[in-house]
Amino acid sequence: MAEEPEDPHDVDVYAPARHAGSRFVRLDTAQGIARITLNRPPANVLSVEVMEEINNILESLEYQRDVKLVVVTAVGKYFSAGFEIAEHLGDRAYLMLEEFHQVVGNLGKLDKPVLAAVAGPALGAGNILAVACDMVLAGASARFGHPEIKGGVFNTVATALLPQLIGRKKAYELILGGNTLTAAEAERLGLVTRVVPDDKLEAETAALIQRFQEGSAVVLQLARRAIAGGVDLLFPDALRHAEDVYLNQLMATEDFEEGLQAIVAKRKPVWKDK
């Protein structure tokens, strides 16, 4: 495990959220790609208000059928330093957990592939926001971890999700030990899909985006549905779920026929995304 990055308390990231009407999360949609950008630099701390914005965006994307990929990124020194400290206190704690559980739930049920592009530390709830995405592309200097235990708290989603992702032994060490992982260590554990040099992160993200842009939105969505719906099932049940999606949903699409016809004709498919 790596040494921890600079303490986010050293910068003014726990100040109260800005006045109502300020925007902490930006959504840009173009050419089948929806970019969700955390825009509360330098550390993109997750207040209740920030998480409400994330949830509103995720819920709005559910109805955009032409979206082929959702990309989660951040502006600033951190991907996210996690929850705002004040949110742990009093009645805010319940609101904080409820809103964050909804964020993770919305990521899970969003019928579109989701990629997190992580530059800088992703700590606590910020780590979960990243690893709850379908794919994680990380710069080499990125850090992942759960230092909350040192402040007398723990992340509820981490206790449920991390044992599934990295196994119980490593989850105990990461959550109870309060240390951070390098991007390379996170990749070896399976928290990160791929690590690239920091100066290549933007280019590698763009290359991955292009690959998705060349696909059919509806086919990508249904393939993700087949994977996501079977993750927690036994193999025979997961296989039946995938078969149902294939036979009763994929085969009913126009792009199913177009893709096969394009292969036979040795031409590029002309997707209709339906």
Overall description:
It is a single chain. The chain is of the alpha/beta class. The chain has 2 domains: 8-212, 2-enoyl-CoA Hydratase, Chain A, domain 1; 215-265, no CATH class. It is built from 10 helices and 9 strands. Strands 1-2-3-4-6-9 form a 6-stranded mixed beta sheet, sandwiched between helices. Strand 2 (33-38), helix 1 (48-61) and strand 3 form a beta-alpha-beta unit. The chain is globular and about 60 Å long. The N and C termini lie far apart (46 Å). 36% of the residues are buried.
Write the topology of this structure:
Elements: E1 25-30, E2 33-38, H1 48-61, E3 69-74, H2 92-109, E4 114-118, E5 121-123, H3 125-131, E6 135-139, E7 143-145, H4 156-166, H5 168-177, E8 180-182, H6 183-189, E9 194-196, H7 201-213, H8 217-230, H9 235-248, H10 254-265
Parallel strand pairs: 2-3, 3-4, 4-6, 5-7, 6-9
Antiparallel strand pairs: 1-2, 7-8
Which characteristics define this entry?
about 270 residues, 10 helices, six-stranded mixed β-sheet, about 15% strand, 2-enoyl-CoA Hydratase, Chain A, domain 1, disordered N terminus, three-stranded mixed β-sheet, 2 domains
